[in-house]
């Protein structure tokens, strides 16, 4: 794997600050970290140019799973067909994440579509056209209990942390104006004036829409970070079965573990899926033992280590986990 330049402690603190408040001003960030705002801005630009971090935007998945369609898709492919499939699927706006995984499947996709009919077309038409495809398994998400937007580097003290934007009382629904803003947010820190230029809207209209989308919980902004520099370089996925009457309690407990990035209930015999970031491969076994002791209702049915994350919430990643490009997530995009 290519070498990844490890960032300085100040850079890790900067990433943590933007994980908490992705669109905070450089004045707010500088005040929190005790540095000049210009210094904070320059260091962030250096991280972005190195592919170490970036703010990305996507629909808030917990609400999305309630009102629309969120699914995990497993693909089986001939070994010689995998690279082409990753190249093609990485550019599909409805496919938020792509992992090449071990143990019983080749690719693991996270997909956001407006409805089940659109998901069906994606699976039955788009995916079926892939050369070398051997089979697919689709698991619709029924509830998202926790996702990576809330994962933190833990590089800041409580006194240094930047407060996130205030939550609004009203919950908006997606409309054409909000969709335009989402499509224009290839960089989640884009100034309102730049978004306005891309959407033929006024700056004040964009600022209002952003405030409504973020405050109302419609839009997630995530400070994505190259995994190797986090100290948690191993990613894995666990599949599990939980009795329906224990599902909510068990899933809620799982979201409190620092290793758990995503925890979602799904359709099918395995009704719970979780993705993890771990410090070592040995932690896979350690965590299994810990879960068996703490959550007796949970039965792990399968586990897979991520060999390479090719795409994570719109960010395209190279072999070292660096961000090379962004494909904005757009569930409504034309097939």
In terms of topology, how is this protein built?
Elements: H1 9-20, H2 26-33, H3 37-49, E1 53-59, H4 61-67, E2 69-77, H5 82-89, E3 95-101, E4 107-113, H6 116-126, E5 133-146, H7 176-183, H8 192-199, H9 203-215, E6 219-225, E7 234-241, H10 247-255, E8 260-266, E9 272-278, H11 282-294, E10 299-312, E11 315-317, E12 323-326
Antiparallel strand pairs: 1-6, 2-4, 2-5, 3-4, 3-10, 5-8, 7-9, 7-10, 8-9, 10-11, 11-12
Helix pairs in contact: 2-3, 8-9
Give the helix/strand class. alpha+beta
Order of helices and strands: HHHEHEHEEHEHHHEEHEEHEEE
- Biggest β-sheet description: 8 strands, antiparallel, barrel
Number of strands: 12
What does this structure look like?
By secondary structure, the protein is α+β, with helices and mostly antiparallel strands. The chain has 11 helices and 12 strands. A hairpin with a 5-residue loop joins strand 8 and strand 9. The protein is globular. The two termini are 34 Å apart.
Task: Write a short abstract of this structure.
By secondary structure, the chain is an alpha+beta fold. It has helices at 9-20, 26-33, 37-49, 61-67, 82-89, 116-126, 176-183, 192-199, 203-215, 247-255, 282-294; strands at residues 53-59, 69-77, 95-101, 107-113, 133-146, 219-225, 234-241, 260-266, 272-278, 299-312, 315-317, 323-326.
Keywords:
single chain; 335 residues; alpha+beta; eight-stranded antiparallel barrel; two-stranded antiparallel sheet; 11 helices; 33% helix
């Amino acid at each position: 794997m290519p070498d990844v330049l490890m960032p300085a402690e100040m850079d890790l603190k900067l990433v943590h600050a933007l994980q908490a408040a992705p669109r905070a001003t450089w004045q707010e960030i500088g005040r929190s970290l005790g540095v000049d705002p210009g210094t904070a801005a320059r260091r962030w630009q250096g991280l972005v140019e190195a592919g170490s971090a970036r703010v990305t935007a996507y629909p808030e998945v917990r609400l999305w799973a309630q009102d629309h369609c969120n699914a995990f898709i497993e693909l089986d492919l001939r070994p010689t067909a995998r690279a082409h499939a990753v190249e093609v699927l990485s550019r599909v706006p409805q496919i938020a994440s792509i992992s090449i995984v071990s143990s019983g499947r080749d690719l693991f996709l996270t997909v956001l579509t407006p409805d089940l009919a659109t998901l069906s077309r994606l699976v039955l038409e788009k995916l079926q056209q892939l050369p070398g495809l051997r089979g697919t398994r689709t698991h619709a998400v029924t509830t998202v209990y926790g996702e990576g937007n809330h994962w933190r580097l833990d590089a800041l003290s409580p006194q240094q942390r930047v407060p996130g934007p205030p939550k609004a009382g009203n919950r908006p629904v997606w409309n054409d104006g909000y969709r335009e803003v989402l499509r224009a947010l290839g960089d989640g820190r884009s100034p309102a004036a730049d978004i306005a230029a891309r959407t033929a809207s006024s700056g004040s209209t964009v600022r209002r829409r952003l405030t409504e989308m973020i405050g109302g919980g419609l839009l997630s902004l995530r400070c994505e970070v190259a995994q190797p520099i986090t100290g948690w370089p191993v990613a894995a996925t666990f599949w599990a079965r939980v009795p329906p009457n224990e599902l909510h309690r068990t899933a809620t407990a799982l979201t409190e573990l620092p290793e758990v990035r995503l925890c979602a209930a799904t359709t099918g015999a395995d009704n719970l899926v979780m993705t993890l970031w771990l410090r070592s491969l040995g932690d896979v076994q350690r965590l299994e033992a810990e879960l068996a002791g703490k959550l007796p209702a949970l039965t792990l049915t399968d586990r897979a280590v991520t060999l390479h994350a090719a795409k994570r919430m719109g960010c395209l990643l190279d072999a070292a986990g660096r961000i090379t490009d962004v494909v904005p997530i757009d569930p409504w995009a034309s097939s």
